[in-house]
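Lab notes, practical 5.
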Amino acid sequence: MLVLHESIKKQAKCRVELHVHLDGALRPETAWDLIKQKGLPLPGDGSLQALTDALTPKEPTDLACFLKPFSIFLPALSGDLTAIRRVAREFVEDCSRELVAYCEARLCPQLLMPLKMETPPVWAAAADHANDANINGNTNGSQSQDVIAEQIVEAALAGIGEGEKTCPGTKVRLILCCIRGQPKWSAEILQLCEKFKDSGVVGIDIAGSHHTASGGDTHSEGAEVFQEAARRGVHRTVHAGEDAPAASVRAAIDDLKAERIGHGYRVLEDESTYQYCRGTHFEVCPTSSYLTGAISSLQLTSKRHPVLRFIEDDVSFSINRDDPLLTATSLRDEYNLLASWGCSEAVFARANFNAALHSFLPPAEKRELLRQLRDAYGVPDVDVRISDGDSGKAANLDKPCITVNTWENRT
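Output from the prediction step:
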């Protein structure tokens, strides 16, 4: 008898992603198309392959070098609401293909403002290959010099809405990012978080290298705005412990009232700080943590990835792509990398339930997401308490009561 093997056409959406940058998640084909439309410089022979090669770091360096490729493609998005809407729509479609039930994508709208500033934009300042065409902008296409940050958020949300209509079972929300070294943007970011809190914006973040931070205490830049965000009930996550020491993670929790930590790997450099932060959810980005040099710079005897310590200690974490256009990885690739280190499906299930629990969704939507995960994983029930309030401190939610293999029994 002939048996035909066919893939399952409708797979359950079972993943939750909390740390991915929308402007770093373009499809390579879309980046190439937009750059050509605007008449902007393309690397090498101008082919898609040459662009893809130029965007992906070949060896671990540091965060600044990792971010350099943004100067190649971000000018093609700047001030172009149609392009931003397209990227957001395609992002939802890509999430759906990655079996993502829920994703929080982050975006700094000011980085996508029309390029009319006299000084190089943040993403071009560190780029050796940034040239006048990149920095001064090219107004070909639908770029408008009158675009404001609010319109950029609206365009992203509109694209997300379009994507969700064609991708049932996948939900995407936005986190708006402040940028270290650009404190003048932060108050407006908080205002936009409040303005769009009922339209798809669920939180605030601060990203960028600590080495470009303003003021004396580089670990606590943005504290005033984030403390105000806590008072207003705006959820908070903070990039910390990536290119800065363990103290930056503690400062994020204490001074910026972070509920989650983006990256946070270097928290293991100080055991007392690590113990203090163990109740916090860490947004782990496995591939980018190597390409940014975060792992090679760890001041530890072992260069074993911190996520393995998190697993052993039952610390809450999620699995994320960060900037997939630069890492050239899918979410499946990130899971496969962890699997190669010995992580089982049970570890992935726990990570996704914890990601759902620590998401910034309103309580009712969070319960619905947990029901969706239960159905996907075939788990009969998850007994958790979800608070309707925000104490202003890092979240310490009850753990999902699901039966999974232990780390010791991971094989």
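Observations recorded by the TA: The chain is about 40% helix and 10% strand. The CA atoms of residues 312 and 359 lie 22 Å apart.
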